[in-house]
Amino acid sequence: MFQQISNGSAVTRFGSSVALSDNGSILVVASYYFVHIFERSSSSSLYGLLDTKDHDRAEEVAVSGDGNVVGVTISSSWPRFFVRNGDSFQARSAPENLSSDDDSGIAMNYDGTVVIIGDRFWSNRRGRARVFRWMDSGDGFVRYHQMGDDITGDRTNDFLGRAGSLSITYDGLTVAVGASGYDASLFDHGLVRVLDYDEIEEKWNKFGDDLLGDDTTEYFSTNALSSDGMHLVVGASGGSYAKTFERNGSNYEVIGDKIFGEGGRFGSSVDISADGSTFAIGAWTHDNDKGKVYLYDTFSSSSSSVAPSSNSNDYPSSVPVSSASSMTPSGHSVMLLLLCVLFRVGMY
Q1: Which of 120, 273, 327, 346 could pair with 162 as two cysteines, CB 3.0-4.6 Å apart?
Q2: Fold designation for 56-347
Q3: How far is CA 142 from the centre of its chain?
Q4: Do 62 and 26 meet the contact criterion of CB atoms below 8 Å apart?
């Protein structure tokens, strides 16, 4: 650990949700009444406060891969968006007629032009997710426009779209959505569904089979996609396990063995590196709520947790979508990934 950040105030839940830009230069932290935006200094390598935004209560924060756009879902209100202008972030118009509720998720693509937003209590808790693109309306105004129809849960109490259960690729054309309560018998197996966007038909098409939890009350739903969508990690906090998948032909296939934790809500949060080679799994109730984070190498033949080499190349400050699959995480990147998950696990 190279730095700890605190706001010095009591009962603010500072760190209830965090998000990092792809190269780790921008860190966004939620608390009860504020969204705090930090920037990492090139000289000291430490984070300093860049900007603070007021809000009612954040559920989940997101930042674009390039660090220039910040989004936050607000309890019982509509999401907020901010775009960087120099050393501050200015409000960006949110999609019209959009609201979210407690514990609703949000995720952004690399440049913040595409965002997916959840509303897990929608329609008797079926839940839904909607995807929006920042684009010209044709009338000289640029705003968020919905891409395709709503992505909805199948039945009551699916809770599709909660915090941590939404992820998106760099180009914004593939999303993964989780439904923690999904099961035909209402026993909370959990589900993750991947969808690709057809830009000609302007609709979302399900890719492959639904990915389901193995047993009841497993809440198989927290997920993270690699930048190109080739790799996916899914956690099941109720079953204390996680699975990794690789996109192959017309489906996602499991890679390796099921990964079990030591209890402690293992799988309550997950994240994955841009190239899919490294992933992290959080267990926030481990050891009387002390919490624990596990790091894994996707391509290792061993099931034990490993740390990537510290002498691999750093992420570039600017990453084109076409080259995202060739990136390798650095030692600092993995440390930042672990920091991100440590803060996020407290939400589950």
Answers
A1: 120
A2: Methylamine Dehydrogenase; Chain H (2.130.10)
A3: 25
A4: no
